[in-house]
């Protein structure tokens, strides 16, 4: 179902999104670690769990007033609590997306799509990767683009992007050390990115149902 284009989303929505994301990461932590044990160092589930638990704890203690401030706070928290490569990358994603949202109290989906694209571009710049390199960008780039259409298509694009990493050769991160042996495995970061975007779509769906 298409969301109404005039819907706007406040800080509460963004807090609900990250809470749903933390629950999804918690639920899927073993799977993320399993994927990372095939082509990495088996810590992606643990990293994500630790990071998102810290994010929700911080947001509960002192919830920032605007969507932008909330994402900046969450991003900072990820950077300071996650040791792996994914911490600074996801932290940058949320911080830069939050910065791009500015100080608006309510944001539209198209505005969020634009801000997310800025966040994704910052991840690409920080990590030096591009789509096709078998990283989180393979889910995030199509998701940000599809978010201009709807939350549901963003979710589908992220999930398709994560699945499409299976036949790819890893060119960035630890998986790249494996060379050809990285082929045939789904990228853990693209998989967690799809979880985050699915949590966003589910949170938006709940708002729609509540009317
Ligand atoms: P680490 O690789 O330090 O153990 P994680 O296991 O938490 O960190 O995260 C691994 C994921 O991070 C990979 O599956 C990949 O999606 C993502 N990643 C690694 N390096 C990069 C990079 N340079 N650019 C984008 N994403 C990357
Ligand atoms: Mg790892």
Structure explained in plain terms:
The mean pLDDT is 96. This protein has a single domain, classed as Serine Threonine Protein Phosphatase 5, Tetratricopeptide repeat (Alpha Horseshoe), CATH 1.25.40. It has helices spanning 11-39, 44-61, 67-81, 86-101, 109-127, 137-146, 151-163, 188-210, and strands at 8-9, 107-108. With 211 residues, it is an all-alpha fold. A two-stranded antiparallel sheet has the order 1-2. It contains eight helices and two strands. The longest helix is centred in the N-terminal third of the chain and has 29 residues, at 11-39. It is 68% helix and 2% strand. It binds adenosine-5'-diphosphate (ADP) and magnesium ion. Magnesium ion (MG) binds next to loops.
CATH architecture field: Alpha Horseshoe
Strand content: under 5%
What would you call the shape?
A: globular
**Number of E-type strands:** 2
Distance between the termini: 14 Å
> How would you name the CATH homologous superfamily?
DhaL domain
Instruction: Write out the distinct hetero groups bound to the structure.
Output: adenosine-5'-diphosphate, magnesium ion
Whole-number mean pLDDT:
96
Helix content: 55-70%
- Find the CATH topology: Serine Threonine Protein Phosphatase 5, Tetratricopeptide repeat
Q: Strand sequence of the main sheet, in spatial order?
A: 1-2
Brief account:
The chain has 211 residues and is mainly alpha-helical. It has 8 helices and 2 strands; from the N terminus they run βααααβαααα.
What are the salient characteristics of this protein?
68% helix, Serine Threonine Protein Phosphatase 5, Tetratricopeptide repeat, binds adenosine-5'-diphosphate, mainly alpha, binds magnesium ion, 211 residues, two-stranded antiparallel ribbon, globular
